[in-house]
Specification:
alpha+beta; Peptide Deformylase; five-stranded antiparallel β-sheet; 5 strands; 23% helix; globular
Length: 192
């Protein structure tokens, strides 16, 4: 296994719709293993192939944040499709490709996803809380979007300005996690 380099915004691959995976072979299994190692080393709770410069519909998620030697709960999503989402919420997210930037963005507290594993076997996955948020966040990367694209124009402009300031400063080792976990998601606003 190898740790891959994480590309940062505004790298062009982060704005491209990723290609569907058609070959399920040892090279794909190696990519998944390398992505998982990269995600754990970052540390993060999710990583999509475009974040390591590869425009393929592959992402890995593990919200367990295991300590050294503890078992991992790795979810592999290849060619994922969002089947259903429920319970709109607001969640503070971060991203390994936008290191140091966190913003509260709209997302969902529950998601049903159809995806293949490394062998090509199709599965139905569902998750709630951080797992749903992380899966949706990583799938968004496969669509050529980053989490700040869910902000309104003014908030997005302020977020980009803050990110440019962060990028200009020397950064310590990344402690950011994709779809970072705040204490609890806030409730969606009441509609009238």
């Amino acid at each position: 296994m190898a740790t891959l380099s994480i590309v940062t915004y505004p790298h062009p691959v982060l704005k491209q719709k990723a290609a569907e995976v058609t070959v399920f072979d040892e090279a794909l299994a190696q990519l998944v293993a390398d992505m998982a190692e990269t995600m754990y080393a970052a540390p993060g709770v999710g990583l999509a192939a475009p974040q390591v410069g590869i425009s393929q519909q592959v992402c890995v998620v593990d919200i367990s944040q295991p300590e050294e030697g503890e078992p991992k709960e790795l979810w592999v999503l290849i060619n994922p499709v969002i089947v259903e989402t429920r319970e709109p919420i607001s969640w503070e997210e971060g991203c390994l490709s936008l290191p140091g930037l966190y913003r509260e963005v709209p997302t969902y507290n529950w998601a049903l996803i159809k995806a293949a594993d490394v062998t090509g076997q199709r599965r139905i996955l569902n998750g709630s809380g951080l797992l749903a948020v992380a899966m949706l966040h990583e799938i968004e990367h496969l669509q050529g979007r980053v989490f700040i694209d869910r902000l309104g124009p003014l908030k997005r402009r302020f977020a980009l300005k803050a990110y440019r300031r962060l990028s200009e400063k020397p950064q310590p080792a990344p402690a950011a996690t994709d779809a970072s976990a705040p204490p609890a998601p806030s409730s969606p606003p009441e509609s009238s």
